[in-house]
Amino acid sequence: MRFLRRVSILLAFCTLITSTRLLFAQNPARFQKEVDSIVATNGSVNKDNLILFTGSSSIRLWKNLSAAFPDHNVLNMGFGGSEMADLLYYTDKLIIPFKPKQIFIYEGDNDLSLGRSPEQIIASADGILSLIKQHLPQTEVIFISPKPSLSRWGLKEKYEDYNKQLKHWASMKRNVRFADVWTPMLDNDGKVMQDIFVADGLHLNEKGYSIWASALKKYISQSR
Hints:
Layout: H1 2-24, H2 32-41, E1 50-55, H3 57-60, H4 65-68, E2 73-76, H5 84-94, E3 102-106, H6 109-113, H7 118-135, E4 140-144, H8 156-171, E5 176-179, H9 206-216
Parallel strand pairs: 1-2, 1-3, 3-4, 4-5
């Protein structure tokens, strides 16, 4: 009976994860080739004390990620245009096989711009976390707040509400932290800085990434 009960619980869990993926993912197969390429390119990476960064284009375009954290073994597994549900769909490819000691996740920016609710996004984040805890129970996960930007400043209140909810959710989880990059990107008047983006007003330039590096350094594990 105990065995059957455990099997039932496991099947229920798998069904929940699959249902979450199907409910919130917006055709994640659109990233299949990109994800396969990223995984193949990094297949032989050094996994010792690995710190993995993943998420949408703000991670993917962080070309000097290694230079930002020169004393650590960091890996960029970002894929552009993704949402939290897309990362959930590809967690078993982009995260689990690399067995990182820390994972930095940047998602939610595209979700909010497409009208996703905080509850939808956090449901996908919870699914990602469940998979990580199942396979990598000792790994710490840091969820990076969606950033302010010139192109999406009209959604300021939605971003602030989501960041507040994400921070609270993270505080309730073991080995999970919330990293705030929203606040350091604002000027003294509380408005988003004008000179930290490339021409599209959304993605970061070198100065913008230097702000991110400074904000995230305190979360980087010091063990090597």
